[in-house]
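Class prep. Write one:
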Amino acid sequence: MSGVPETGLATPEFVRTSGRSMWPLIRHGALIALRPATPETVTPGEIVAFRRDGRLFAHRLLAVRRGAGGFELREKGDHNRGASWIEGDRLVGAAVELREGPCRRSLGVDPRGRRIRWLTALLRLEADLVERWIRVRLRGGAPARLRPLLLPAALLLAPARALLVRLLLTAYPRPTTVEDAGALVALVRSFRALFPGARAEGDAEAGTVPGDGVALIEAAAAHGLVPSLVAVGSLPPTLARAVRRQSYRTALDHERAKPALRSATRALDAAGVPYAVLKGPALYEAFYRDRFPRAYCDLDLLVPRDRIEVALAALAGAGYAVEGGARRQAFLRRFHFHLALTSPRPGWPPIELHWALVDRANLYRLPADAGLARRQTLGAGDDAFAVLEPGDALLYLCLHVAKHAPFNANGLRRGVGAEWFIRASVGNRLLWFADIALLLERAFDRFDWPELRRRARDWNTTEDVGVTLRVLHLLAPGSRAGAALERLGLPAVAPVRMRRRAWSGAGPAPEWALRMNPVVLFRPIRVLLAFRLLFPPPGRLLAYYAGVSRWRLPLLVLVHPFHMAGRLLRK
């Protein structure tokens, strides 16, 4: 789990995490606060941060030993299988607090507590068994009589291990939500000021800052829009300086990422691999350079599925290596839609190498070459790289929002206000809607709207594209989302279905249904979403199986749940 100092948003002890090595306690993109620590002051069971290969990691400390060359620390991620020893001088600090959007959680629990000691012992035992297994494999493999037992043992132990870790992690206090309603209202108004066309009726001054502005800064940080506050609103001098520092840092991160992007794209060009740069630097160069810096944490590259091996070899020559072992890589190539690559060079962001635009948990019919057949060249100073054609980019950005925030349709049907859609538990980020709004602003007259409408229909994405554009129209009436809906032949406002009950399938779920449940290990509303994938409406089912006669609909209703269940389980 690596982190990058979040200068300007909080004290320098806060770092942002990436990866899943400490899942489920610490998720990708969370902020952790560190206190200064030395090998003499840390205790096994604590979460410590250390530097290795130019990156910052936060893992659980399993043991401390003192040798001839000084202290050594044994560390392991809760989600990892193996452990490793590091030098004591690599230690940076110990974690004391976790922040995920508006949620706060203390990590400074007593490492001598019973549940933490049991968790540490379990992870230590697991690491010891992994090391012994590796030694057995190096000596010639497991005895033949034991090999048939390995798979059943893994199938039994893996769920038991996951459940036991979940139970032991209850030693940490429950996260508390500090989402400020006034900050959400102010953030929506600031977002609307970026697209100052028509204002919502009754909208107040866009620059109004509630209280001391700290809650607004934190809400903007969760939505990736801190730099945008430079242009809108009037902040107190201290917070205004923090916003400017964050803007400078975001721009500096982009400048450091440009050599990595240049090296990767030139390597792919030299290998003859067609590619397209998704989001991140492509959007920065196309839309944000003259407005405010756009933050991103990795480089997303799309390549053909049948050229993955060639692309990996080319990127290896550019200094990037694939994360994970051979088995995990094989699993991801078969069932996922991207691989993660990292580089030891300081300042070079990781790469997500995509061979599909979205994962398989959907009812889309995206062709294998979606996004690559019509790619275009984007000039960025002295450099140039391939990007999606504007129409494909619009569909992709809308589907990206639909993937991360599948609850938007529920809110629209219920007729809730704009602030509901930017709550942390819903899954939206205002930065994603800013991407779509700026794309519409710059390329609206260049879109081939009849072709785009046909493409969305053929890909069976019309419904999700319409939901995303309606939410954007609600968040920013001054954007061109309403005009885009009209060109696509979709109503600007979804039909509102009011129910007497507090929650139903037609309305937004309450907070307990949206948040990750520590007992059942997923968001309860996912059950409803999975049900809709397994048993979609007849019209969408026929659209998914394009070309099938209507008289075969009863057969599709019987067969489709098994087909979709297989896709979901493999995901």
